Amino acid sequence: MSPRRNTFLGLTLIALTATMAQAAPVHVGEVPYVEAPMPFTITAVATLDTPWAIAMMPDGRMLITEKPGRMFIVTPEGKKTPLDNVPKVEFVGQNGLLDVALAPDFASSNEFYITYLQPGDQRGMLVLAKARLVEDATGARLEDFRKIWTQTPPNGGEQPGGVIAFDPDGRHLFLALGDRMTAESAQNPDEARGKILRLNLDGTTPEDNPQFASGGVRAQTWTTGHRNPYGLAFDANGKLWSIEMGPFGGDEVNLIEPGKNYGWPDVSEGDNYDGTPIPRHATRPEFTPPLLYWSPIIAPTGMAFYQGDMFPEWKGSAFVGGLASELLVRLAFDDKGGVTEGNRWSIGGRVRDVAVAADGAIWAIEDTSEGRLWRLSR
Q: Which of 3, 274, 340, 342 reaches 20 to 30 Å from 36, CA-CA?
């Protein structure tokens, strides 16, 4: 993993002056702050080996991936059932078995999606696959496994992205892709890196995508100019949001709108790791700036919007994990489309993913070889 700036001393929210006819992002900066008291009880119910993603099942259980290449069904009480027939993965650094997302019709089909980095001849290629969950007297396993999308070009470094989201009507799949540590690829329209793609549920290309007539990667591209997006989610109003790791500063919260270019690596709210500056979004009005950015960074991962009843005061908020910062962060949204950081809590570990259960409890996983599965409740 690339070295990251980890001096996250504090919080300030500064609405910067708009320049060059574009709205300025809100900056979460470096001043001392008083951490909010924890309004929840944290219970560790299980441990896993470097867990990466949580998908909440209709019956309250969870599908959880482990980056080395394992999957489990986990009950709210912490009982783990391993899944057989999980594909082999390339597990190194940030790469491995990544996201898991239930198909929109999971309740009737038992189908779900995963992303992972492929080993072997095309090692490091990001794969989007679909499978069916089967449970019987012999155990639990994947059946009808098929790859429905593979990354072009096939190989690459770390910063894979690989996060999945479905639109509210359940007809399309959105896939967030990192730049694979080749920053220039994020602006190359023919490389599936540094992009957010919009696909049909079978991996084919929707005909109403902005560049469908161009074919190839261009036809699948919804937005471009992303560095390392590790959170992607729709809010209750049908808007798509992403969180993205910046370089030396400049982690981002973005409102994702079709056809827009978010600027990486030509602009950023952070700088290069060697200290050389990167132009800011305000200098290039053709690029879409983040609505909020963190500098110093928090290393944001996972994103889940909250509509539960356990914490009614947080309805409409989003919860985001922090790796380097070891934080759980609440994002608050206003009726004008703005976003601010509402709260941050240190919960004792690197938070990799966040999910919300039907009863309103918040679940989170810890990014370590003995990673805890936490339940946050009243």
A: 3
